From TrEMBL:
The gene is nnrD. NCBIfam families: yjeF_cterm, yjeF_nterm. This is Bifunctional NAD(P)H-hydrate repair enzyme. It comes from the Bacteria. One of its GO terms (molecular function) is ADP-dependent NAD(P)H-hydrate dehydratase activity. PROSITE patterns: YJEF_C_3, YJEF_N. AMP binds at K414, G415, A416, G417, S418, G442. One of its GO terms (biological process) is nicotinamide nucleotide metabolic process. Binds 1 potassium ion per subunit. Residues 233-502 form the YjeF C-terminal domain. The lineage of its organism: Bacteria, Pseudomonadati, Pseudomonadota, Gammaproteobacteria, Oceanospirillales. (6S)-NADPHX binds at residues 69-73, 137-143, 166, 268, 329, 377, 443. Pfam families: Carb_kinase, YjeF_N. K(+) binds at N70, D133, S169.
Length: 512
């Protein structure tokens, strides 16, 4: 990897493509002189290596082959495994004479290697220690039909580990949505271009480990396609957060003001303020309802807490801050409405979350600005777009991009495979875990984003980095104590370790 591409990787992460773009890469590669069947053999060889790396010592497996080139990969893999003495049960969704082109040639190769073929039928028992899913790849069109559906259900019912070829069958390669039914994979080996649909929506729960194999195509096809997205990479942290100069002053690293905690809703704003302080903002202020002041000061004396009965008591606070975080515990009543109005009037970058988003969808409609980060979960995103949450989840990348087009700035669409949409395009977070399905996680994220903006990161970099650090912090906290019972308040100390990447492991352990 050249220095230039290493730098690109660190800043942007691995490129992700849609199915049509991967087909274009295939086409260019073939046009450049690598035959389609040679590419299929590379894919199968990579899959076979992946299988052996994940399941060393395996002696037998079944492979389900669909009627297209995804099935073709399966036939060639079966031939390779048989040549090394494995017992392979090769199951055909379509008879040999219905196969054409490379898929037909691949099926003949497996037959010539002595791998028997059995036609799919619903009483078939899948044999061997694991299943290879070569039913449907990037050629899937629409809801899964007919026997493919039955076969996918049989794979999932088998209880065997599954290696999915290119993409778990039934998963949409662009959106990560399940088209009726999808294979539950243990590992997915994916070729030529990593796919956006392997990393968001239902995908994180379906794909298992993703093993990306470029098959040497990147260089050969001279990739100049604009990727559909980039996968957020932990290298971003060191790239954007170098060690501070020895003479740093708190005035250099920003002042964030958290606006939230309407009467009766104190915790969320405090969680945001705490995360903001832990992520390195020089100063953190919290403007909250007076009833929350004492508790906030007891918990976090470093935060400057201001009790306000309404926006009229903000008293120039917003003007003294570099960035405002508005929404955690805001409520949608008169307190929250007044505070949001004041925030929208401030000429400061904003992080907008929770009830502030609901108010944007109802009372404060038509707002658009470039200097804000909106952080909706799918329900809030649906309200902001006038869609149902199901419609948002059916195509999360499209929803994130639509929100960014409509509202400007940068949009973080939360949920498994969080997406960041901004002027630079889409980024996807491959980290995080189900322990994050608990109250307050979004508040911690908004505080993290506020801290990064306060420290002077550009809006989109702050959003990408904040989402990454939030998810990695949750993963670190889970390694310490498990998923169930993970609290939003557990994230801040882990996130602190992550944003000090020069800290040695020993130092990090000592702080736990
Ligand atoms: N040279 C290359 O390009 C390389 C490609 N490579 C590999 O090829 C894969 C792409 O292959 P592809 O384009 O042939 O499509 P593929 O995923 O096999 O699907 C087509 C089959 O699915 C079926 N089917 C479709 N929709 C359906 C539905 N809703 N419900 C049910 N069935 C449905 C469709 O049936 P039909 O509609 O024809 O009846 C047909 O049988 C790619 O993912 C990678 O693995 C690698 O080898 C590297 C080189
Ligand atoms: K597949």
């Amino acid at each position: 990897m050249s220095v230039e591409s290493f730098d690109h990787w660190q800043r942007h992460g691995r490129p992700l493509y849609r199915a049509d773009q991967v087909r274009e890469l295939d086409r260019r590669t073939i046009a450049a002189g690598i035959e389609g069947f040679a590419l299929m053999q590379r894919a199968a060889a990579a899959a076979w290596q992946s299988l052996k790396a994940r399941w060393p010592g395996v002696r037998s497996f079944s492979v389900l082959c669909g009627g297209g080139n995804n099935g073709g990969d399966g036939h060639v893999l079966a031939a390779m495994a048989a040549a090394e003495g494995l017992a392979v049960q090769r199951i055909l969704l379509k008879p040999r004479d219905a196969l054409s082109g490379d898929a037909g040639r691949a099926a003949d190769m497996a037959t010539a290697a002595g791998v028997e073929a059995v036609p799919w039928h619903s009483d078939l028992v899948l044999e061997g220690e694991l299943v290879v899913d070569a039913l449907l790849g990037t050629g899937l069109g629409g809801e899964v039909r007919g026997e493919a559906r039955e076969a996918i259900e049989a794979v999932n019912a088998s209880g065997l580990p599954v290696l999915a070829i290119d993409i778990p069958s039934g998963l949409h390669a662009d959106t990560g949505a399940v088209l009726g039914v999808a294979v539950q994979a243990t590992r997915t080996v994916t070729f030529i271009g990593d796919k956006l649909g392997l990393h968001t929506g239902a995908a994180p729960a379906r794909v298992g480990e993703v093993d990306f194999r470029a098959l040497g195509v990147e260089a050969e096809a001279e990739v100049d396609l604009v990727p559909a997205a980039h996968l957020l990479d932990a290298g971003l942290i060191a790239a954007w957060l170098p060690p501070r100069p020895r003479d740093a002053h708190k005035g250099d690293v920003g002042h964030a003001l958290v606006l939230g905690g309407a009467p009766g809703l104190g915790g969320a704003a405090l969680l945001a303020a705490e995360a903001c302080a832990r992520l390195g903002a020089g100063k953190v202020s919290l403007a909250t309802a007076p009833e929350h002041v004492t508790a906030s000061l007891v918990r976090r004396p470093e935060v400057m807490v201001h009790g306000i009965r309404g926006a009229g008591e903000l008293d120039g606070l917003a003007d003294r801050a570099d960035v405002l975080v508005v929404g955690p515990g805001l409520g949608q009543g008169s307190w929250g409405q007044g505070v949001l109005q004041a925030a929208l009037g401030a000429e400061r970058p904003l992080v907008v979350d929770a009830d502030a988003l609901n108010l944007l969808a109802t009372l404060f409609t038509g707002q658009r600005r470039e200097e804000w980060v909106l952080t909706p979960h799918p329900g809030e995103a649906a309200r902001l777009l006038g869609l149902s949450p199901g419609e948002v989840e059916a195509d999360r990348p499209a929803a994130a991009l639509a929100l960014q087009r409509r509202y400007g700035g940068v949009v973080v669409l939360k949920g498994a495979g969080s997406l960041v949409a901004g002027p630079e395009g889409l980024a996807v977070c491959p980290h995080g875990n189900p322990g994050m399905a608990s109250g307050g996680m979004g508040d911690a994220l908004s505080g993290i984003l506020g801290a990064l903006l306060a420290q002077g990161l550009p809006l989109e970099a702050a959003a990408r980095l904040g989402v990454l650090v939030h998810a990695l912090a949750a993963d670190m906290a889970v390694r310490q104590g498990g998923e169930r019972g993970l609290l939003a308040g557990d994230l801040a100390s882990c996130a602190r370790i992550l944003v000090n990447p020069t800290m040695g492991e020993d130092d990090a352990a000592a702080t736990r």
